Amino acid sequence: MRYVEEFRDPVAAKRVLGEIDRVTEQIGATASSPVHIMEICGGHTHAIFRYGLDKLTPDGIEFIHGPGCPVCVLPMRRIDECVQLAENPQIIFTTFGDAMRVPGTGKSLMQAKAEGADIRMVYSPLDALELARRNPDREIVFFGLGFETTTPSTALTIQQAARERATNFSVFCNHITVPPPIKALLDDPHMVLDGFVGPGHVSMVIGTKPYEFIAKDYGKPIVVAGFEPLDLLQSVLMVLVQIRDGRAEVENQYARVVPSGGNPVSLAAINDVYEPRPSFEWRGLGEIDASGLRIRDRYKAFDAEAKFSVGYGADSRPGTEPDGCACGQVMTGRIKPPACPHYGTTCTPATPLGALMVSSEGACAAYYQYGGVRAPEAAE
Question: Domains in the chain, please, with CATH?
Answer without folding.
Answer: 4-68+190-252 (3.40.50.11750), 76-176+292-313 (3.40.50.11740), 327-371 (no CATH)
